[in-house]
Each structure stands twice: as C-alpha cells, then as structure tokens.
UniProtKB/TrEMBL annotation:
<keyword id="KW-0998">Cell outer membrane</keyword>
<protein>
    <recommendedName>
        <fullName>Outer membrane starch-binding protein</fullName>
    </recommendedName>
</protein>
<dbReference type="InterPro" id="IPR012944">
    <property type="entry name" value="SusD_RagB_dom"/>
</dbReference>
<keyword id="KW-0472">Membrane</keyword>
<dbReference type="InterPro" id="IPR011990">
    <property type="entry name" value="TPR-like_helical_dom_sf"/>
</dbReference>
<feature type="domain" description="SusD-like N-terminal">
    <location>
        <begin position="6"/>
        <end position="214"/>
    </location>
</feature>
<dbReference type="Pfam" id="PF07980">
    <property type="entry name" value="SusD_RagB"/>
</dbReference>
<dbReference type="InterPro" id="IPR033985">
    <property type="entry name" value="SusD-like_N"/>
</dbReference>
<dbReference type="Pfam" id="PF14322">
    <property type="entry name" value="SusD-like_3"/>
</dbReference>
<feature type="domain" description="RagB/SusD">
    <location>
        <begin position="327"/>
        <end position="504"/>
    </location>
</feature>
<comment type="similarity">
    <text>Belongs to the SusD family.</text>
</comment>
<keyword id="KW-0732">Signal</keyword>
Amino acid sequence: MTSCNDFLDESPKSALTEVDYYKTEAQATANVNYLYRNGAPRRISYASSAYIGPKASITGMLTGYFSNSYEGQEVVCKYSRLLTRQQHTNEISDTSDDIWDNCYNAINVANNAIASIPNITMDSGTAAQLTAEAMFFRAFNYFYLVKTFGDVPLLLEPSNLENLYPERTASAQVYTQIESDLKAAVDALPAKTFAANGHRITKYVAAMVLADVYFHQGDYANAKTYSKMVIDSPHSLTANTDMSGSSAFNQLRSTDDLDEVIYAQEYDESISNSSWWPTYAFSSSATAVFGTYSIFERVYGPIDQFLNVYPTDDLRIQPNQFFHWNYTNPNNGKTWTAPDGQAGCWYYYDENAVLNTGKGTKDWNFYRLAEAYLDYAESIAQTDGVTDEAATYLAKIQVRANMNGETEDQIKAGLLALSKQEFIETCWTERIREFPLEFKIWDDCVRTMKFPVISATNPGEVTYVNLIGAQNAAGATFKETDLVFPISLNELQRNPNLTQNAGYASK
C-alpha cells in the first residue's frame, strides 16, 4: 500500500471488473490502482494527441478566450468556441463517447471494489483504505460526468445483465451520492500530503474535491468547512525564491511533489511519460527549433484579450512565468518566436523533454493549495461578508504575484475596503489569473452563471455579466444548451432509456 518514488502497480488484469475476480488483496489493490490512470483523471491530465489536448481542455474553448490552432481538424474545439455544438452533435459524439465510456468503466471498477473488498481476507486497515480510494474515484468520475452532461445514470452496483439500460438520474441525486462517497473517503484516508502518502489519495485530496463539489452547488457553508480542512493540512504555498526562473510559478511548472500540490497525475520517463504535453508550449514553427518532437501545436492557446486579465505589473503575465513569446534553444542557437496574437504556454514547457529526451516527466497538478485559499476566501465572503480572515487568504495569493513590493497587510487593507460583491468578483478574477492553463475557467462560469468580460484595452480590468445571453470572446452568444455536452448518438442507440440533452440531435 505504500511507495516512495515507485509507480502504482497496475496489472493488465486490473481492467477486469467481475466480482469473482476479487479473491486476494493483490487483486483488489491492482484494480484500485487502475482507477488512478483511467476515467476522469486521464480525461483531465493525459495529452494523448499532438493536435488536441485532454478532453477537459475543450470546455475552455467555450469562453472564446482559448483556441486550438488545429481546430480545422479537431472540430469539437471549433464548434465549442463558436457555440455551435448543437448543429454538430454527430461530429462531436466521439468526445462525448470518450468521456462517457471511460468514466463509466472506471465507475464499474470502483463499484466492484466497494462490493468485493469486504469479502476478502486481508488487513482491515488496508481494506478500509482501498475501499475509501475506490469511493473517492467513483465520486470523482461522477463529478466529472455531471459537470459534463448534467443528469446521468447513477450506478452503484457492479454491472450485470439487469442494469444494462439505466435511465438518467437527476443531477441533485448524483451530487448527494458524490458527497456521501467523498465524506467517507475524508474520514478513512490518511492525513498526509499526496507526495508523503506515496502518491495515493489522502484525506486532503478528498476534502479538496468535496469543497469543489459544494462550490458547484452553491453550498458555500460546506465549501468553507472543507477548504479550511485543506488549509489546515501539512500542505503549504510555494514561495518565490526569486521573481524569474525560480518563482513559485516556475517551480510549480518544473518541480514535482511540492507541498502546494494537493493532487497530481504522476508521470515518469520510463514507465508513463506525459506524451505530447511539452509540445503544447509552442506553436507549429517550433519543429524547426527542436529535434525531439515531430509536431508542436498550440492546442490550448490564449488569445491576447485573455492575457489582459492581468495588470501589467502582475508577475504571472511576465515572460516565462505562465506564458512566453520567444525561446532560444541553447543546444543549437535556433530561436522560436510566437506568431502575432499567439502567446506560447510556458506552464507546459518541460525542459529536458523538449531539449533532450522527447519524453515529458512533469506531473499534472489537478488541485493546488492556492485553490483552497481562494475557495475559502470566497466561501467566507459568500456566507459572512468581507472579513479579516477572508481578506487574509486572498491577500496571500495576490502578494505572491505582486511585483511592487506591497506587503500582505497592505494588500489586505485594500481588500477589506471592498464591498461583498466586489470581493467575491475579485476572488473569481484571481482564480482566472492563478489557473489560466489548468482548465478551470468554464467550470467557474457555470458555477457562478457569470461570464468574465476581460477588457481588450485596459490590462487587469474584468467585469462580470450574466452567462446566458452574454457574448463570448469569439462573438458567439451563450444559450442554456451550451452548459452541457450532448449525450453521444452511439450511447443513445445502445441504451433506449436515455434521453438527449435539450438542443442536441437524438439521432
């Protein structure tokens, strides 16, 4: 159950889901290990294609603030950016299929583990931990599904011939089950950092996801409780060693197992590398600069208007923090320059992979402590108004990016002068600035039902308007039907009890 730098042992048999397979502790462990690299985690963190990012990257296109330079081929990105998915249900069904099939496969593995582990003769502590991990992943997969599709079938038992054609379950009921699973995981899992726990799910991983779940339901009282649990954990924010190559943001880009990281997908050069992630840092012209990859593409590229979310003196918008515009290969002296309006994504840059090996090793961070700070600050403001404690945690995030020498107390004083709504919107804006390339912007739009209008002329100026009826940055107008993906036509044909989401074709 423990490992230091070793990867989780995943036997090919871990894909088997029949209850009869679970006879030994080793079998149970292998099946739970399977959940770490399949279903929702892989949809968020794995760069399997040179031309399109993980499935989770696609929703960011809906804002119009991001584009895929290969969207002529990867049309789901184009139709998402232009808000025309409704006219192209069949063409984007592969994306829906991929998310649906893989998440439900993982849920079935988790259901088998939860049902079977109590009947295996094994150490009770190990059994409790494996069961809690399975419950976490069942919840994590359902959370991803309900955010993507809305109402989805809620399956809590191993698949059999009697439940092949489930109906959709109201999202509120799905959320209730997600909460139940995550609370059980919080109670049973170790109170350690993810890295200190051998890269296995911990109490604080489950608590962080639970805070996110409550945020999506507008339950700020419970979000406050669980985000505070994470804040009080052994995790800590990464500090700036300097304001350039050793800034906190460059450390987060280049270094694994920082105490700030609550939950990550582990990558390694020899066992499981990060595939195409390093190539997403550049545009296609970078193929002439490096010899390690045959293709470079900006698959999740910010438009210039998005970059105006930052004031000019914010550290995060400086070159080689989150973004970059020029790079000279130290091995051959060749230089890459970003095309006009196409900043490169420095956060994805993996130096050794790009310069030497062609194999990315940087772990993908799902959740960082900075998010818990922002969750906590906002949830306090939502429930209690602008308090000293709320301002303290928001100031801790802002001071790390401050280049003017302001102290945390000085920043906090300014925050305390804000109205409740101004403070909440400042939290929203800070989330955009802190997680620009981690696929969180659309979730926040749906959670708040507000769209961030980033000024095209005044850096740092952001206003919020009602999401439905707003124009995205590509000039398309948001509709209710844009909030979810369609159920794939293949799935509708396989299961006659499913119904299609409003606005999308059912055949």
